[in-house]
């Protein structure tokens, strides 16, 4: 049975701005994300600029990629930045103990990362080492990157060929300090975060946005401990925060950690379990926001979901430490669902970074030698890019028939999801039908304004398991979808959209007047 429903969008009621940084990315020294994915080296036959893959740059620029988090993840807390500067052939090597126990040659370091960000037009987000580093090391990294004039670190930077400082705003104070970043207790880390934040200075007019290493999933106690420590009350005439934001990590798994399941070989029940797991992000963001509201009712402290996405078993025959997984229409629906939730939480949620950009976990792009494939998830980012820096519009979704699937554990899964925003005189509505088998008819009831001729795009495929490969790179790709839209001839502002089973649709319309 198909689902029927209505989505009321009030064009004249403005919600919070959707930061473009909710569409952020994450690249770790893990598997083939950096080496082979972003970086091929200057001598590679693959077209590159200074060693950076140009096909990858072009594909990511088309997403309006707003920021890139680097160098980890768990890797960040064993990374010593001074090993990654200076002539490449003289850089010390290390073992990447977290990810495959492989040797890291440090060829992709600070200068290469900042050059990549410049090519992408993306803001850098650097994750500093608290787990195995020192306060001095982190403080000097900030000085090296952002100070102008003359100082020991500025002289070192200049000797390595970069005269002017970079502008670096986003700064992570460690990663998963409750786990791979040092196995700390919240109270201990809260003190370290204050200490490290103190010595991560604002040089010149560069203002750091310090992001403390936050909770995993529903660990609200971790968030509360950090929030209690956030302000430097009494130590200055004007109280200021030690850190400006807290992070949160939450991955989507359909099963237990030990048996995450295949990325491509799954059934309908696995699909619904995945969607139910993805929907948890709404409760998690609400829960952490509620804790933060107690200590920061004015919502000046940001929540940064700097790792999210699906996590499946690695592709058969690949290195288990490299986290290489395929990406199907199911992954695309997980992404669409997350964005709807992000838009609703845009007041507190200031940034989100999908894990990870290339060849790792829920990637945008998969490379194999010279080939480059855009994943279904990539297409959701592209179709949704009009939400970046847009004003969110409240959307009320009501189903009149169907719209729920019962899961094996007796709970119900709502199969429709939607969100809306306006920017540059246009309305953008994103719609997902998570139902594996049945289509849906959704009436968009646009109130409080008039719209011009709408257009729509559709992302779907015959099978939920459909994915893109070098041999079939467009098995899942968006297409124009005018036949799926019907305007009501008798009432302006009523638009009916047909959503095929397991589909993601965007509707765009100019706002009149
Ligand atoms: O994204 C892969 C890993 O997941 C990251 O390194 C770590 O922070 C998280 O546990």
From TrEMBL:
GO terms for molecular function: alpha-L-arabinofuranosidase activity. Pfam families: Alpha-L-AF_C, ASD1_dom. Keywords: Carbohydrate metabolism, Glycosidase, Hydrolase. Its EC number is 3.2.1.55. Signal peptide: none annotated. One of its GO terms (biological process) is L-arabinose metabolic process. Gene3D superfamilies: Glycosidases, Golgi alpha-mannosidase II. Belongs to the glycosyl hydrolase 51 family. This is non-reducing end alpha-L-arabinofuranosidase.
């Amino acid at each position: 049975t198909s689902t029927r429903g209505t989505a009321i969008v009030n064009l004249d009621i403005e919600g919070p701005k959707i930061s473009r940084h909710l569409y952020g990315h994450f690249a770790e020294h893990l598997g083939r994300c950096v080496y082979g994915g972003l970086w091929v080296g200057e001598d590679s036959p693959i077209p590159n600029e200074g060693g950076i893959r140009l096909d990858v740059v072009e594909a990511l620029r088309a997403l309006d990629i707003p920021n890139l988090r680097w160098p980890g993840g768990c890797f960040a807390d064993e990374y010593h930045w001074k090993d990654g500067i200076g002539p490449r052939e003289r850089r010390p090597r290390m073992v990447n103990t977290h990810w495959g126990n492989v040797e890291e040659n440090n060829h992709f370091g600070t200068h290469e990362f900042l050059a990549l960000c410049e090519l992408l037009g993306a803001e850098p987000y650097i994750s500093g080492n608290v787990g195995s580093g020192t306060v001095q090391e982190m403080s000097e990294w900030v000085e090296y990157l952002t100070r102008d004039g003359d100082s020991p670190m500025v002289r070192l930077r200049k000797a390595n060929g970069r005269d002017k400082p970079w502008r670096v705003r986003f700064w992570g104070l460690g990663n998963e300090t409750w786990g791979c970043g040092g196995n700390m207790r919240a109270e201990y880390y809260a003190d370290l975060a204050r200490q490290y934040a103190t010595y991560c200075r604002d040089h010149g007019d560069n203002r750091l946005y310090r992001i403390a290493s936050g909770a995993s999933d529903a660990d609200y106690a971790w968030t509360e401990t950090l929030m209690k420590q956030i302000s430097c009350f009494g130590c200055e005439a004007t109280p200021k925060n030690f850190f400006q934001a807290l992070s949160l990590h939450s991955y989507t798994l359909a099963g237990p950690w030990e048996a995450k399941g295949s990325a491509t070989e799954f059934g309908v029940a696995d699909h619904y379990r995945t969607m139910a797991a993805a929907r948890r992000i709404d409760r998690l963001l609400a829960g952490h926001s509620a804790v933060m509201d107690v200590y920061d009712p004015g919502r000046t402290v940001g929540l940064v979901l700097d790792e999210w996405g699906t996590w499946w078993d690695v592709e058969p025959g690949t290195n288990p430490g490299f986290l290489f997984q395929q990406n199907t229409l199911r992954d695309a629906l997980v992404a669409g669902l997350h964005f709807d939730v992000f838009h609703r939480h845009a007041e507190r949620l200031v940034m989100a970074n999908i894990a990870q950009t290339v060849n790792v976990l829920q990637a945008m792009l998969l490379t194999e030698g010279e080939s480059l494939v855009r994943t279904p998830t990539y297409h959701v980012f592209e179709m949704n890019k009009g939400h970046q820096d847009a004003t969110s519009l409240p959307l009320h979704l009501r189903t009149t028939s169907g719209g729920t699937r019962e899961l094996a554990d007796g709970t119900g899964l709502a199969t429709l999801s939607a969100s809306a925003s306006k920017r540059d005189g246009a309305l953008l509505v994103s719609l997902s039908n998570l139902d594996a088998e049945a289509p849906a008819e959704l009436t968009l009831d646009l109130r409080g304004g008039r719209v011009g001729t709408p257009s729509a795009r559709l992302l779907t495929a015959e099978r939920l398991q459909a994915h893109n490969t070098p041999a079939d790179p467009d098995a899942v790709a968006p297409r124009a979808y005018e036949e799926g839209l019907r305007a009501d001839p008798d009432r302006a502002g009523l638009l009916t959209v047909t959503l095929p089973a397991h589909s993601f649709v965007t509707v765009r319309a100019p706002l009149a007047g």
